Amino acid sequence: MTAPMTSESTSPDLVVLDDMPPAALSRGEGPTWHDWVGRYRRTGHVTVPAIFSPAQMQGAIADAMAWSAAFLEQLDDAKRAWYLDNSASRAEAQSAVLRKLDNPHANRPLFRRLAAHRPLLDCVETLIGRGVSAYFSQIFMKPPHGGGPKPVHQDNYYFGPADPDGMVTAWIALEDADLENGCLHYAEGSHLHGIVPHEAPPERPYDLLIPPARAATREMVPAPVPAGGVSFHHGGTWHQSADNRSDRWRRACAIHYVRNGNRFAHPALPYDESLVLRLT
Ligand SMILES: O=C(O)CCC(=O)C(=O)O
C-alpha cells in the first residue's frame, strides 16, 4: 500500500541537522546524535530522554486530568463506551477514567506549547525534514491496575499519508512508562516492509489492528520511557501497549507530525484538517 522506508530511500528533502543536536542529547552520556538517527532508520523507533522537564510534565498531567473531568461531564451515552476505559453507566462515569482524548494540540494551550517545544521540533525535523505541522494528537491514559491493552497496529494504516516517511509520531511520556504500567512495544524493522491489512472488532469499529495471528509473527520489543522523554516512531512501525498492572498511572501524549505539504491522503478514519497546526 505504501512504499517502505529504507536507509537508502529516505525522503529526498530530508535534512539531518548535524549542527544542531537536541539539547537532551548534548547532555551527559548515552547515544550520540548520529547514533539515534541511525537507530530510527534501522529499527523504526528511537527514544530521546529529558526533552521536557518534570515541572512541564506535572503541568501537562494536571491539565489532562482537568480536561478529562470536563469532557466526561458532557459525554453522551453513545460515546461513553468508546471513550471510557471500563464501559461505565452514567453513575459509574463519575469515577471512571477516560481512555483517550483527541487533539490536545488544538484544544489545550498547554499541549499546543508542548507540541511547539523547540527541542522536540529539532528531533522531529531531523527525522522527517524541515518545516513541520502537528496533524493529529492524542492523550492516552492508563489508570493503576486499569487501562486495557492497545493491540498491534501501524499509524500509517490509520493516516494514509501521501508520503509515508514524512510522518512521525512523538510519544511523550508524561510520567515514567515501563513494562509494568504499559509502555509501548515495537516490532523493530517492521517499518521497512510496508503497510499490512488491519481489521476492527465489530464492537470497536475504530480500533483498527493487525489480525492477532499475523501480529504474533513478530517479536515486540519494549520501549520504556522516563517521564519527560519521547519515543519517536515511524508510521509504518508495528507497535502496541500492554495493560497497566502497576499501582501507578501511565499517561502519555502522542503527537503525529507531518512535513509541511504532506497530508493524510487516504485515511482509514476521518481526520479534521482544520486542526492541522503549522509549527515551523
Ligand atoms: O499509548 C498507547 O497506549 C498507544 C499509543 C499509540 O498507539 C500511538 O502513539 O500510536
Automatic annotation (TrEMBL):
Keywords assigned by UniProt, alphabetized: Dioxygenase, Oxidoreductase
Sample GO molecular function, one term: dioxygenase activity
Cofactor field: Fe(2+)
A UniProt-annotated Pfam family: PhyH
Domain of life: Bacteria
Protein name as it appears in the record: Phytanoyl-CoA dioxygenase family protein
